[in-house]
Every structure is written in C-alpha cells, then in structure tokens.
Amino acid sequence: MSFWEYLGNRHQQLLTDAYQHVSAVFQCMVIATVLGILIGVVTYRSGWAGSLAITSTATILTIPSLAAIGLLIPLVGLGVAPTVITLTMYGLLPIVRNSIVGLRGVDPALVDAAKGIGMSRLARLCRVELPLAWPPILTGIRVSTQMLMGIAAIAAYASGPGLGNEIFRGIASLGSANALNQVLAGTLGIVILALLFDAAYVLLGRLTIPRGIRV
C-alpha cells in the first residue's frame, strides 16, 4: 500500500489523533503561559529570584521526556494526566525566561511616568509593563509550542493522546507492510500542525502588538 493510499484509508483516525494532539498541546500551553508569566512577574525585579526561576525551569529540560513520563506513571497513572504535567513543565522555560527579559527591558522612564500620574503598581504592571513586554513573551510562547509539538508524541508511551500513537504503532511493527507509512504519517502530521500553530502566532502578533513596538 502506498503512502497516499494509507492516508486515504486511515484519514478518519489520523484526523482524530491530530485533533487530540492539538488539544493537548494547546491546553498545556495555556497552563504553561499563565504559570510562566506569573513566575516572571513575581521574580523579574530580583536578580537572584529571576536567576533561580530560569535555572529551575531549565533544569526540567535536562530530564529526558520519556523518563519524565515514566516517573509520573506510578504517581498519576496512564493517559492524559502524565501528558499534561510533562508538557506543562517542559513549556515553562522559554516563557519564564522571556517574561523576565521582557519585563526587565521596559524603559524605567515609562514606568516612572505612569507612577507619576497616580497609577498603582498593579495598574502599571497590567497597562504599561506587560503590554511592552508582550513581544518577547509571545516569542517564548512560540518557542514553547514548537517544542511541545514534538514532545507530545512521546505521550503515546503512557497511552496519551495524539499522533505519537501512530508513530509508536509503526515502530512497534517495523517490518510490516504499513510500518513506515504509520511513522511517516505521524511525523508529517506533527510537522504540519507545528507550522499551523506558528502561523497562528504570527497572526496573533500582528493583531496584539502595536506597529511601533514590533520587533
């Protein structure tokens, strides 16, 4: 069976796996983005706290993703839970780092001006600092998403959702007629989804970043 014939016969299952893959990555990115920005907001004013936050989240990336999922299985079981926890942890570093860098890069004169007109610290953060730091933060979110698209494939090891199941089935049946088709379909599917996600972030950047501060 050719690759195109395989896609025609399995398109329904591939679409389901692709939807689950996108859903898992998107939900984990939402959680990672909220946590990453909060960590950045809490730590960016302190040199040692910012360094600790970046070092801690960077340390997570030194743990092989397969090992991380394997260590979580005895604690939370198979399926969605280890997938969500692992992807969220792996998505933190670029967001935390770029949040801290972006917030520290805001011109102090603008913050002082906002303070001078009576803005509270929370108002300055929400209306001045975070909007100006948004371009690097969005870049961090884009980087995290690209990483998680690939790492999410490992979730199949823990019976998680996504196109990784197609890849693992192909690897497990190497030598059979459709093994290569399965691996290729899963891999190309992830690449296409990653490109679509990135295009969506480019559009989001054009809609949310004022022309004057676009990088």
UniProtKB/TrEMBL annotation:
Major location category of this protein: membrane
Compartment(s) where it occurs, according to its Swiss-Prot or TrEMBL record: Cell membrane; Membrane
Positions of transmembrane segments: 24-44, 51-73, 147-163, 183-204
Record-linked PROSITE patterns: ABC_TM1 (PS50928)
UniProt cross-references to InterPro entries, sorted A to Z: ABC_transp_perm/SBD, MetI-like, MetI-like_sf
Listed Gene3D superfamilies: MetI-like
Every ABC transmembrane type-1 domain range: 18-201
One Pfam assignment: BPD_transp_1
Family that this chain belongs to: Belongs to the binding-protein-dependent transport system permease family.
Protein name per UniProt: ABC transporter permease
Species for this entry: Streptomyces sanglieri
